[in-house]
Amino acid sequence: MNNAPITVQYKINAPAEKVWQALTDKDEMKLWYFDIQDFEPTIGKEFNFYEPGEERKYHHQCEILEILPDRKLKHTWAYPDFSSLKTVVTWELFPDGDHETQVRLTHDGIDNFKELGDNFSEKSFTEGWNTIIGKSLKEYLEKKI
To answer: Which of 51, 74, 88, 120 could form a disulfide with 113 if both were Cys (CB 3.0 to 4.6 A apart)?
Structure first.
């Protein structure tokens, strides 16, 4: 059993303010991440979404725990249709000069989903976060410059 969090980190060629906007503006989020209609960057607010496509198999439910503008977004991550347990996702931004930002995502408590099968495994989440940050977010922000 591995209780270590998943950590994914990438350098993105964009200032922290632009990365933050991509992480917290629901109109931008749907261009690279998920279409989250009820997202509001306010502590205590809950938001819900499904994976892209028509299947709508996985209802994601999250609640914002912490916000430090241009620096940190922390929220729960849960699948209420499958489990009452939650995990915690933390997005951290580290400016590197004026035009680059180190983006680090930590997904803690993934062991809570171990009973749910391979789609909820550490390997599956690690691959997903690497694709979301290293490809989707990076390509979205770097083409905007």
So the answer is: 120
**Which residues in 69-128 belong to E strands, given as ranges?**
72-78, 86-96, 100-108
Cα separation, 74 vs 56, in Å, equals 24
- Is residue 102 within 8 Å of 94, Cβ to Cβ? yes
Q: Whole-angstrom Cα distance, residue 129 to residue 87?
A: 14
E strand or H helix that includes residue 32: helix 26-32
Q: What single-letter DSSP state applies at residue 134?
A: I
pLDDT of residue 52: 80
Quote the pTM value. Answer: 0.94
Span 108-129, pLDDT tens digits: 999 999 999 999 999 999 999 9
